[in-house]
Design a protein that fits this description.
- By secondary structure, the protein is of the alpha+beta class.
- The protein has eleven helices and eleven strands.
- Strands 3-4-5-6-7 form a five-stranded antiparallel sheet. Strands 8-9-11-10 form a four-stranded mixed sheet, covered by helices on one side.
- The longest helix has 24 residues.
């Protein structure tokens, strides 16, 4: 995630989550283009907002921004279409919400803020990619929507069930993504992480994983040629999902899973392998964009380098990790180099590795399929032999 700048004299850094400039106090936010956080002037007479470069266009804070500070969305009133018959005004990101947590429970509100932050980061990356991103009003048939709900008591870190509440499972169903509010609670999420023996569990990771399921439907499932090709990389997704789920939780992942999968959960079923790989692709390109924004360089060796070699390790300023201008091999080579530095920085602070995963050749091959599927370049993938395809999914 890149940073932004205010237009005041001090030009301080604005972050993706910023709602005001710390130097001049101006309101800042992100509009329906959803690509830039920028400052807004306020019109004293009407209380509406405008940008200096186009003062005729008026903006209003998203209701979730104005009332709850749950986002920093700004709504262009000249182009806004209400999502229903109500007078509710919602920004680009909030229009994807079908259900938000029960806000009459005060303890839910800060957790909802965390949900919205993770969701907006996930949507920002998707919006920058050449793939469809529509809410249900824009596309009632295949649009994307979210439920943020829970079945447990927030006051004991979601340990005890709520009376009369059906069990809430985080998951995806035909474009509708449900995230249990418990995932926004650090204690509850940490307990689940340790109980399941996971090396990595984050709220943003949940969004990206479930969005992976959504984009499998959007990019692959209804396109026979692409679907057939996908099966070569991820296996036969027509295998019984419930049986695979039961087997995974009874038997666990095979010992040799790191050879061909990005995570233990990815071994459960080809659908989960796709979703896990999709999430990692998103992690990689978003983090590389952040590193590029700060002109960070990295090295995996302690050897001395001459100036030319040092320059070659810098993340190039003209790289576009979102628009496919960089090949997947270069992206992954850069990521391997950078993740070593990232993990080393964490260790210097006494923290766990930020990216505790190994990209084997089989995983890199699957990531390449994700990359080419996103950029509609699957025809550029090399044809796999039956032996090569079997090596991507075989477990013992």
């Amino acid at each position: 995630m890149k940073t932004f700048k205010c237009n005041c004299d001090q030009h301080p850094i604005l972050f993706f989550e910023s709602s005001h400039c710390l130097a001049c106090g101006k309101t800042v936010g992100i509009d329906d283009q959803f690509d830039q956080v920028e400052p807004y002037e306020i019109e004293a007479k009407t209380g509406l907002f405008y940008k200096l470069d186009d003062p005729k266009v008026k903006y209003k804070k998203c209701d979730n921004n104005a009332q709850y500070n749950a986002c920093n969305g700004m709504v262009n009133l000249s182009t806004y279409t209400p999502i229903s018959d109500s007078d509710e005004v919602l920004c680009f990101a909030c229009r994807f919400n079908e259900t938000v947590p029960d806000l009459s429970i005060a303890e839910h509100i800060p957790l909802w803020h965390k949900m919205e932050t993770a969701k907006r980061r996930a949507l920002y990356t998707l919006n920058a990619l050449p793939i469809p991103l529509h809410n249900l009003m824009q596309d009632p048939e295949t649009g994307l929507s979210f439920d943020f709900i829970t079945d447990r008591n927030v006051n004991d870190h979601f340990s005890s069930p709520l009376a009369g509440q059906e069990t809430v499972f985080t998951g995806h169903d035909c474009g509708h993504i449900t995230i249990n509010l418990a995932e926004a609670d650090d204690v509850a999420r940490s307990q689940t992480k340790h109980a399941m023996g996971e090396r990595y569990r984050t709220l943003l990771g949940h969004f990206r994983h479930e969005l992976g399921h959504y984009y499998f439907d959007q990019l692959i499932a209804h396109k026979p040629e692409k679907h057939a090709l996908c099966k070569q990389y991820f296996g036969d997704d027509e295998l019984d999902y419930q049986a695979a789920l039961a087997h995974h939780y009874e038997q666990g992942a095979p010992e040799n899973w790191p050879d061909t999968f990005i995570s233990e959960y990815a071994t459960m079923h080809p659908y989960e392998d796709w979703a896990e790989t999709w999430a990692h692709y998103m992690h990689i390109i978003d983090t590389l964009e952040t590193a590029q924004n700060f002109s960070i360089s990295s090295s995996t060796s302690g050897d001395d380098y001459d100036n030319e070699e040092v320059e070659s390790l810098k993340l190039p300023q003209d790289a576009s990790y979102f628009m496919g201008q960089k090949g997947i091999t270069q992206i992954l080579d850069t990521w391997i180099d950078f993740s070593v530095m990232l993990n080393s920085l964490n260790r210097s602070m006494g923290l766990a590795d930020a990216y505790p995963f190994v990209l084997t050749q089989a995983v890199r091959t699957k990531l390449s399929f994700i990359h080419h599927a996103i950029h509609n370049k699957l025809h550029l993938l090399p044809k796999l032999s039956n032996t090569e395809a079997s090596k991507l999914t075989v477990i013992k």
